[in-house]
Amino acid sequence: MEHEAFGSVVSDFGITAANTPDNPAFWSLDDLAAVVAKGFGLFGAVDPAGRVLGCAFAGASRRRPSVWELRHLAVHPAAGGAGLGEALVAEAGRRARAAGAELLRIGIVAENRRLAAWYRKLGFVATDVWQQYPGLPFHVDHLELALSSLPPASES
């Protein structure tokens, strides 16, 4: 799933296995397990036949007590536009809020303006923009969603 979803955009931003080996497009099962071992829960969306159409990881920030991090949200390219991404963000928000978090944070490829606009549509706001990290061939924008803006669990 991660290979398919992330693999569909890596060439757009100069991402290769050589320059960004930890990108989910190049993950092994051990890499997936390492994210879970860091305390990030994996959850997803499946079709009636049991095929995974989307997934994401979410868990508490190690640096900020009232913040949860959303990582590696992925929707299979063939399932794009069906609302699965929004459902995964909502699920991450529900989990975070239930754990007492106030904010949901994600880092994205800053050059991916389409993705940034999608997150803004969901209520995320940019907090740190155009960050350059050693070894990455792209910049990173950090976005946050105030969990108080989400509807109560019974309404979502």
Brief synopsis:
The chain has 156 residues and is α+β, with helices and mostly antiparallel strands. The protein contains 4 helices and 6 strands, in the order H-H-E-E-E-H-E-H-E-E.
Structure keywords:
single chain, 156 residues, alpha+beta, Aminopeptidase, six-stranded mixed sheet, 30% strand, globular
CATH architecture: 3-Layer(aba) Sandwich
- The number of distinct helices, counting runs of at least 4 residues, comes to 4
Q: How much β-strand is present in the residues? A: 25-35%
Indicate the CATH class: Alpha Beta
Mean pLDDT: 94
What share of the residues lie within helices?
25-40%
Query: Describe the biggest sheet?
Result: 6 strands, mixed
Structure, explained:
Strands 1-2-3-4-6-5 form a six-stranded mixed sheet. It contains four helices and six strands. About 25% of the residues are buried. Strand 3, helix 3 (about 85-100) and strand 4 form a beta-alpha-beta unit. The chain has one domain: 3-Layer(aba) Sandwich (Aminopeptidase), CATH 3.40.630. The chain is of the alpha+beta class and about 160 residues long. The chain is about 25% helix and about 30% strand. The longest helix is centred in the middle third of the chain and has 15 residues, at about 85-100. It has helices at about 1-5, 30-35, 85-100, 115-120, and strands spanning about 40-45, 50-60, 65-75, 105-110, 125-130, 140-145.
Chain-wise SSE layout:
Layout: H1 2-7, H2 29-37, E1 41-46, E2 52-60, E3 67-75, H3 84-98, E4 103-109, H4 113-121, E5 125-132, E6 139-146
Parallel strand pairs: 3-4
Antiparallel strand pairs: 1-2, 2-3, 4-6, 5-6
